[in-house]
Amino acid sequence: MHAPDDALPSTPDDAPAGWSDPDRLRSAAARHLWPHFTPADQSARGDLPVFVRGEGVELWDADGKRWLDGLAALFTVQVGHGRRDLLQKAVDRAGDLAYFPLWGAANAPAVELAERLAHLAPGDLDRVFFGTGGGDSVEAAWKLARSYFAAIGKPRKYKVLSRVGAYHGTSLGALSITGMTGIRHMYEPLVPGAVKVPSTNLYRAPVHADDPVAFGAWAADQVEATILAEGPDTVAAIFLEPVQNAGGSLLPPPGYLQRVREICDRHDVLLVSDETICGFGRTGAMFGCERFDVVPDMITCAKGLTSGYAVLSAVIASERIFEAFRAGGGQFVHGNTWGGHPVAAATALANLDLFDELGLVEHVAATEGAFGDAMRGLGDLELVGDVRGVGHFWTVEVVADRATRRPIVADADGRHVADVIRAAVLDAGLHCRVFGSGSSVIQLCPPLISDQGVFDEIEQVLRAALEKGAAAC
């Protein structure tokens, strides 16, 4: 399934002039491009791979090297690369209107997409507010939660809870919700009112490490204890990814999300499911919250909404939240130029059409076991401490010592081994997240069209790289 017959990739013959000159591209990148989350000296050296073409699960860089995309670019390209059929359908669907904003008006593709997302989302999540990215949707959702409580006469409810180590975006509001201290400290003080609760990292659980149910109950109870300590009349929302990405595919223990839902209901706190990564089939369900049988008050989503073929995000909110504004004759005072762009919305619609045509959600559910078996097979290697995941979203945690579970990047010797592993993965042409942001995990999140051949290739590359790492110890 990973190379659909109707995927029409770019070819060297139709590439823009100059794209066939890798030296020129690298030189220009070194002089002018400022990459995201990349050390400045690395980008200035001019040795970053420059990708020019994609087809299905494969990528080619300017040097002609073939790569396997084990990360869906950035947890994004669900339907695979090179789908010119998707782009053509999007252009046709957008029609004669290249652009019109959602300020006091609407455009037809945005209306159609809002209706479709409302039908796909669980419960009464029937109102869709469009934006431009995952962090943007998180920012909007926090503002929406605060505005909602102000609209119903509870303006003191402004605080937001999120989990330690979680990533929710980089704008100042979203960064305040983000729990990764390493990317926060240089921007402090951040927006006040963002409070952290424990993650669901069972592998490094401080209590009940041998009992997932008890650990989940403990973690949920910490949410309630934090709400009570902050004051229930001050807490507006909690943001949770169904499966936490940062830290490496941290699964919710059995009963955890349901217990958090009960706690939120008890204290009038909105539950926001951040599905920037978990949404649109990644977990084997359309939305991650559905996979784990919980209905939130809001879903934030982006990435897989368009499979990266256009820039778009959404907050899908409960009808009762919208009603609070309508009942008071008010409005949600927030917006931007590009949210609900007609071409982006048409692209999302074409992307969702492909989901149906290819049966992607069902395909992920059917092949989850095969991917998991391939990854769990790496557990026989001495550097592998844990393997965990769901759907097409898996993580291999690498440790310097299995007995103590010491992270591979905990000391200089371990970081040297990590560098050997990272270099081996890159040399083999596997694009994935290897020890990102100083972590000790390798994250795999390929396009949802991936099949057994893709899983086996990922396993073979990682096995060889981890064996090289073990030899370097």
TrEMBL record:
DNA-binding is among the record's keywords: no
Keyword Transferase: yes
Region annotation Disordered: where it falls in the sequence: 1-22
Pfam families recorded: Aminotran_3
Keyword annotations from UniProtKB, A to Z: Aminotransferase, Pyridoxal phosphate, Transferase
Single annotated GO MF: transaminase activity
Gene3D superfamilies in the record: Aspartate Aminotransferase, domain 1, Type I PLP-dependent aspartate aminotransferase-like (Major domain)
Origin: domain of life: Bacteria
NCBIfam families named among the record's database cross-references: PRK06541.1
Family from the record: Belongs to the class-III pyridoxal-phosphate-dependent aminotransferase family.
Protein name: Aspartate aminotransferase family protein
Organism for this UniProt entry: Cellulomonas oligotrophica
Lineage per the UniProt record: Bacteria, Bacillati, Actinomycetota, Actinomycetes, Micrococcales
